[in-house]
Every structure is written in C-alpha cells, then in structure tokens.
Specification:
single chain; 179 residues; mainly alpha; Arc Repressor Mutant, subunit A; 2 domains; 71% helix; elongated
Length: 179
C-alpha cells in the first residue's frame, strides 16, 4: 500500500508568496493615487475609500491573471468607474458634491482656490461617465485609448465623451462670464 504524506507549513507556496508581495507593493505604491482618482470620480472621500477598497479586494483573487494580462492599475480604475456608475444607476440620481476641503486653502495655492472650486462644482454636474473621462484625460493625462480601456468603450467613443463634457463645461463658462 502506497502512503502519501501531506506536509503542512506556515508558508504559502513560493509563487503565491511572490504574487502576494507584488500585490502588496502595488497597493502600497498606488493606493494614494487611486484614492485621489476615486475622489474625483465619486466626489466623496468616504465613497472614494470604499470604492478603492472594493476594487482592490476584487483584484486580489485575480492578481496573477491581471498582472499577466497587462496593466493592473487600469483594471482597478475601471473597477472604480464601474462601481460608481452602478451606484449612480441604483440610486437614479447623482449625489451632491461637497468640495469643503477646498475652503481651507494652503498658503501657496490660495489664489487658485476659487477656480478649483468652480471647476470641481462644474465637473460634479457632469454625468458620471463624462466626469470619469474628463478626470482621466486632464487629471491623469490618459490617452483616448487608455480612457477607452478604463471605461469599456472604443477610443472614438472616449473622444466623443470628452468632447461632450468639454462642450458642457464651456457652456457653463460662457454662462458664468455673462453674469
């Protein structure tokens, strides 16, 4: 009779350990930027933290596959955008944005605070996909192909989305300058 023994160790298999280390490194190095991105998408610090945490929790079981197939940050950003759009669809309305953090300016940027507050309020009025496209294009300096990958659309559709958002923002600027 052949007997096999199972040896239990406290250490995970080497590949899993390497994957876990690379995941931890990714989270450590990119979590602040991902939270900033999520804040610009959701408009709320708590929602931003929740969506990033959910996206990273969903990424962990798929880490090896996502890492092997390409850019894990794009995967997480798409998860953040999708989660926000799903929440928006579920409530059928956009939450109001409160840029209260801009009301206490840092000394070196005090002159730019009114412009930043205005830009954030105007972007908050955009539909979620348009807001995501504008944030990706002008905050993260993504190409249209990268925006398309994050938002799950073609590069042409990403261009149209950014164009429509900018048209809306320009109309707001024209309205405010006439007042």
């Amino acid at each position: 009779m052949l007997r096999t023994e199972v040896v239990m160790t406290d250490h995970p298999p080497r590949q899993f350990s390497d994957d876990l280390e690379s995941f931890e490194t990714f989270v450590t190095t990119r979590s602040v930027a991902l939270q900033r991105f999520a804040y610009l998408i959701t408009g709320h610090p708590e929602d931003a933290r929740d969506t990033v945490q959910d996206a990273l929790a969903g990424l962990l079981p798929r880490w090896s596959q996502v890492l092997a197939s390409g850019d894990p940050e794009a995967y997480v950003r798409r998860s953040i955008v999708n989660a926000h759009i799903s929440r928006w669809r579920a409530t059928k309305r956009e939450q109001t944005w409160d840029p209260a953090w801009l009301e206490t300016p840092s000394p070196d940027a005090a002159a730019h605070v009114p412009d930043a507050m205005t830009a954030i309020q105007w972007c908050a009025a955009l539909p979620p996909k348009q807001r995501a496209a504008v944030v990706l294009r002008f905050f993260d300096d993504y190409s249209y192909a990268q925006i398309a990958a994050v938002c799950g659309m073609t590069p042409g559709a990403a261009r149209v989305l950014v164009h429509r958002a900018l048209t809306s923002l320009r109309a707001r600027l024209k309205e405010d300058s006439n007042d």
